[in-house]
Structures
1.
Amino acid sequence: MSYLVLSSLLFAGSLLAGLLGALTGLGGGVVIIPLMTLAFGIDIRYAIGASLISVIATSSGAAAAYVREGYTNIRIGMFLEVATTLGALGGAALAGVLSTGVIAVVFGLVLVSSALQSLRGSHDDSGALRPDGAALRLGLNGTYPLEGRRQPYNVTGVAPGFGLMIIAGGLSGLLGIGSGAVKVIAMDRIMRIPFKVSTTTSNFMIGVTAAASAGIYIARGYIVPELAMPVMLGVLAGSLFGSRLLVAVRTTFLRRLFAFVVFVLAVEMIFNGITGRI
Amino acid sequence: MTDEQHTPAPDRDEALEAVLGNLLRIGVFVAAAVVGAGGVYLLITRGDWIPDFRSFQNGGSPLRSVPLILRGAFALRADAIVQTGLLLLIATPVLRVVFSLFGFAHERDWLYVALTLIVLSVLAVGLSGLQT
């Protein structure tokens, strides 16, 4: 396959991945890495490098739109970025010592848990009932647009949420994904942040988290410009389109769609990791 | 300035949000333009190349430090131009954090100034390997 054909196919696949990633707030990486390794046989370390670049583009491109719509809580974002960037450095260090098969299996397991989590019932957007002391001190409570006015919400579970975000950052640095899945779980289910606020704030944080480990990936030679170019441009175009659809699409539909795609990819990644094909 | 530094009124961050939104958009646009230009050049000059990315041979991409990447870009090497765009992309969220620092300082929210400085230090550690 010539480079022209390979980059065209990668661009098309990344376009779709970027669309899905923006719509679910989970980043394009969860679809790109299986695409590159399973469909094109590319070394998983190159795939991780390209994906890491693409999630920075996804995050920053979509975040620009979300921030202006008033869903993103930049205080929650900055507070939790302390956890995710620290975790990302640890994850990037681990990526240098683990074998590709082990990375593929861990990747698959993360995808399975993301799929299962997103199927586990619907989440009510009422937020925490009572204001939490830590959340008050940190100024994490906020408002978001709902039916033409600003709906206030409270945040809870600050300490366990922060802890889980260190793990989310670690997975991001290890696997080259935004690990928006883990972030949304921490922010939705533990901190009780309304879905669209947690989705957009999680998306806002992904770029910074990925940037923390991207330097390490470039320094190791994992980021190949020939592969990162079509992936980044495709994801960016897809995510910009997806971010415009977000407000119009129902969140339950998004979760089911995402869960299905991710589950299928996860099983393939685990199988290939165990049988040594990756 | 208010007495309750950490219970901001609704919509307090609107000005900062607008600045950050614009910064992200411009950063991504410039990075994408550089990557796109380098990419077109790459496809024109090496479109018929049969690449092999199946394993991490030869230690990966040689373009792995800022001086090497910029030297290549000034010599108009297509792959180095793309890599320069990728550096600009990585710089975008980092710049966003720097701008947040100014924003929080302007609001005299010293707790968030401190948190932002911690995030910047961690980013500096991660990016320190790109110097040489």
2.
Amino acid sequence: MAVHPTLEDAKGERNLRLAEANNPSSKVLRLPASEPLKLACDQLLGPISIAYETYGELNAEKSNAILVCHALTGDQYVASTHPVTHKPGWWSTLVGPGKPIDTNRFFVVCANILGGCMGSTGPASIDQRTGKPYGLNFPVITIGDMVNAQVRLIDHFGIDQLFCVIGGSMGGMQVLEWAASHSERVFSAVPIATAAWHSSQNIAFHEVGRQAVMADPDWCGGDYHAFGKVPRNGLAVARMAAHITYLSEDALHRKFGRNLQDRSKLTFSFNADFQVESYLRHQGSTFVDRFDANSYLYITRAMDYFDLAAERGDVLANAFRGTKTRFCIVSFTSDWLYPTRESREVVHALNAVAANVSFVEIESDKGHDAFLLEEPEFFATIRGFLSAAGVKRGLKV
Amino acid sequence: MQKYTYASGTARVDHQLIAEMVAPGSRVLDVGCGDGSLLQLLAETKNTDGRGVELSRERVNACVMRGLSVIQGDADRDLADYPDQAFDYAILSLTIQATRQPKTVLENLLRIGRRAIVSFPNFGHWRIRTELLFTGRMPRTRNLPDPWYTTADAHLCTIKDFADLAEHVDAEVEEAVAFNTSGQRLPIRHSIALQNLLGEKAVFLLRKRHVE
């Protein structure tokens, strides 16, 4: 693997990002071609890399491990500084010493998903058969494939049963997939702001994002790496549209209203007159600096394909029959991307199999993004649930 | 976390009675579990595996923060999801009078639990009877403090009424206890008519006569 740039010779964020996609700053588990991953599309993928971070210590019984699953544009840097943006970890308010996911008590693992671009095998990774990035030669993957890759990592640690699998949004889908397909390996599960299948409206938003990327001439049919280009505009537009869905009308109104950006009157042009326009443009352009456009296509596709019930005779309860996992399901009042009723569907299915389930709807006006923010009631719920589950698991307080 | 000391009398009297009826180590569903104090009492004194359903979001969140397994839900709407005989006991404490369909709720309790435990305020209590008789207005007591236009209690009943409903849904009354305003248990030898007159609240332990 010598054809791609290394961290040392990386110049600018694009190179840095490409370097991170193949030689991440974090730890990496590299599985040889002899141990390929069998994908839902029936292809074998290998060799594969799984880039991950860990926090805290695994106890002797290996019973205190928490797997954190990240969302669409997240990564393994859940509680450590991001190597490209140099920002704090995306859940550093929730994960850390003395935090609700207390790294003094728990061994926390977070891996970049399969299909991601921060060091786990994805479309920006070098395909060893060609020596070039996979691009569109990367197979279409599913949430189940992502989870199967995580299973390899958990096997690598010799952990039979995770104390908890937790995540929000697409991370929550992975939590549900873990609980449905590997229930004996999950003592407790916390799916947050998520659903058991991707709704038609959510597929629609994703399609807008993908079309924006693919309409950008710099996408080059997915082969932009070869031409030294990046579909900046397309990916930025995709991010701008998606970002709106992560907020709520109230939150947008409170933050921006109709306020003008650094000007006192309208310019009668298409410049960013309004603060909200300027904000979205900023969100779009900073995202492009840290994320691979093809990864965005593949991951959104995996989310669209997610449907726990469809694989099980269209009965969601079948996904959880006989489960001994303790569930804590969390939704947020103003989340219209994964509304409370979709969490309630999961609760109903779990009730139908008399599973051990808690369900909390948190009052927040911050929309879907609330799961990434410091909401005191949300944090207290996670802390309370984990400590009660810890007692049941026999973990030392 | 608030601890319940069983002997100190801090637990609600109906909770103590319910705890006496529950066998150790059983699976319990508490419908309308409020702040979770009964679930916690049962966990601490009877080592139960408990679940709760509660309408108020704030109370649900408080329960989960205390480490109890509770979901936000509605006795009228959400009990239908549960499979038959999923619990040893399905408990409805001081909640049946606030449901829209008490008969359906009771039938669901008897289906979900091998036994159902229901406690309720007794509208046949002499104080309520006299208040209605002498004032001509809807009675307001310590037990039922809200005026008729704000109370959530849509289906108040007497001990006799409840016994009739139990008969109507083919439930066998294994135990029925009433207690007076000082929280004292009324002697078991009292007739149902006397219990209905002197009992402020009642707790019934029921089971379905014929399980299909």
